[in-house]
Amino acid sequence: MVVYGLQAGPEQIIPRSADLGKTGARLLVNALLLCYNGPALALSLLSGEEATKAEIISVGTELLLGQLVDTNAAYLASELPALGIDCYFISQVGDNLNRLTDTLRRAWTRSDLVLVTGGLGPTEDDLTREAIAALLGEEMRIIPELKQELRARFALLRRELSANNLKQATLIPSAQALPNPIGTAPGWWVEGGKSANQQISKSQISKSPIENRKSAIIVAMPGVPSEMRRMWREEVVPRLLARLGSHQVIVSRTLKVLGLPEAQAGEKVRPLMASPDPTVGIYAKADGIHFRLTSKAASAAEARARIAGLEAMFRERLGTYLYGTDEDTPASVIGEQLRRAGKTVATLEAGTGGYLAGLLAEAPGSSDFYRGGLVAGSPEPLAAWGVAVDALATPGLISPAGAVALARAARQQLRADVGLGIVGVPGPEPSGGIAPGTVHVALDDGLSARTGSLLYRTAPVETKRLGSLLALNLLRLYLWTLDKLSLT
Question: Which pLDDT does position 18 carry in this prediction?
Fold first, then answer.
């Protein structure tokens, strides 16, 4: 559960992380929907009671060329509602000083908070600092302390500090540096900027939805997603919480679903989606469908109580499709199930390149329950691993029977209690007459076998992901059944 305390004190809790989950295009669509339809929570960076209006600007020509998907904007847009901040605009702009400065100037006239990602690197086309300086009419200067920190960082990396890198040690008078211990580019927290207000005419400000505002806050963060998220979580959110004047808290809880597409998941809980408090958002993520329940109250306990009531109704409607909450992943949930059951699992994959093994290995404490995985790039190694390839001549390797054979071999070869097998044709071309997007999975425990199949033509990496989630869900439901039987 994520709690954003809007009053300094014991209720103030900073979240450890947020899912990112995730496909980029779907993430961005959900973020845009959230910006325009999200809950309007009346908090303000101003002295009055107006809602804080935020704007996100993503910088980089590679975004405009379609070479990168803007997952940074999606992440930030999904974070803002839990702070009670409304996102009204998301912009992308290339590495051009004039256009970037104009975009910032437009944001300055209409938003309280401007979040900028990208353009903080050392090269000539990294121009975010220069654009902010031009907007405010201030001069960038090298700060000795930042220069020393940068030099130490480069020494640790055994790299030479070049003249170009020195602009990463600059500030303007209105900016404070935001530490970036996992990268070389500090962020900027910018407020004040009297020069910018002088450059913007009164007629422009009068058209803004914000009346009598003193100044916008501009936060510039790196474009590298891991660096941006860490900076947002550890540096930006605490500063924003200190500025928000409400004496309330906002609590969010995420419910995670596996085994249902987004439309069907939404249909199951459709009567609950219009709840005014807690509000509900639905998102398609890399690890399933997420429902985010958010409540604003005078205390965290009150907000949690409201969420608990709605969550109980979600659980009743979703049943076993609901696999976890908040920071849970399919693999982490399965890991806990395996520990409780005192069982281990092993995998054998043909056609998915170890994707399933990677998901299980990344779970916390996976060495407790994951015996390991075998990955075949072609059918040849399978016989050596105990797969009766000749017996599969009629159904073929890419079949439910083939998946069962792999699951059995994984269990036997790696001496696990349960084996998972997965065979598929990720694509993009057919294989042996089998359509791309075909995946078969199986579970074998020595007594019986379970299977599942998928045919969904998409990008090869997506086929591998979806097939691996299908296998994990098969294992999750098997372990859930064992747990229920042990209680009877």
Answer: 37
Which secondary-structure segment (H or E) carries 254? strand 249-257
Mean predicted confidence (pLDDT) in 288-307: 91
pLDDT at 369 over 80: yes
Report d(CA 470, CA 451) in Å as an integer: 10
Q: What is the maximum span of the chain, computed from C-alpha positions, in angstroms? A: 81
Q: Closest Cα to residue 191, out of 234, 236, 231? A: 236
Instruction: Give the whole-angstrom CA distance, residue 364 versus residue 4.
Output: 26
Which residues 6+ apart lie within 8 Å of 385 measured at CB?
A: 348, 374, 376, 409, 413
- Please name the residue ranges forming H helices in 137-250: 144-156, 194-199, 202-206, 225-231, 237-243
**Residues 7-36 pLDDT 10s:** 433 332 323 333 333 334 444 434 433 343
Q: Report the SS3 class of residue 473.
A: helix
What share of the chain in percent tops pLDDT 90? Answer: 66
What number does CATH give the domain 330-487?
3.90.950.20
What are 221's two structure tokens?
A: 């963060």
Domain boundary assignment for the chain:
38-243, 330-487
Residue 364, by phi and psi: left (phi above 0), alpha (psi -120 to 50) or beta?
A: beta
Provide the 8-state DSSP code for 50. P
The domain made up of 38-243 has a fold known as Molybdenum Cofactor Biosythetic Enzyme; Chain A (3.40.980)
- Is the pLDDT reported for residue 350 higher than 90? yes
In three-state secondary structure terms, 348 is strand
Residue tagged 């704007």 (tokens): 55
- Looking at residue 198, what is its pLDDT? 45
pLDDT band at 461; cut points 50, 70, 90: very high
Are the C-beta atoms of 41 and 84 separated by less than 8 Å?
yes
Q: Are the C-beta atoms of residues 344 and 312 closer than 8 Å to each other?
A: no
Phi-psi region of 376 (alpha: psi -120 to 50; beta: other; left: phi over 0): beta
Q: What letter represents residue 420's amino acid?
A: L
**For residue 127, which of 101, 164, 97 has the smallest C-alpha distance?**
97
137: phi then psi, degrees, rounded to nearest 5: 65, 35
117 closest CA partner among 102, 141, 100? 100
User: With contact defined as beta carbons under 8 Å apart, do 410 and 421 qualify?
Assistant: yes
Query: CB–CB of 8/243 below 8 Å?
Result: no
Query: Quick one: which of 367, 364, 368, 334 has its CA closest to 469?
Result: 334
Strands 345-350 and 322-325: unpaired
Q: Do domains 38-243 and 330-487 have the same CATH topology?
A: no
Radius of gyration of the chain (CA): 26
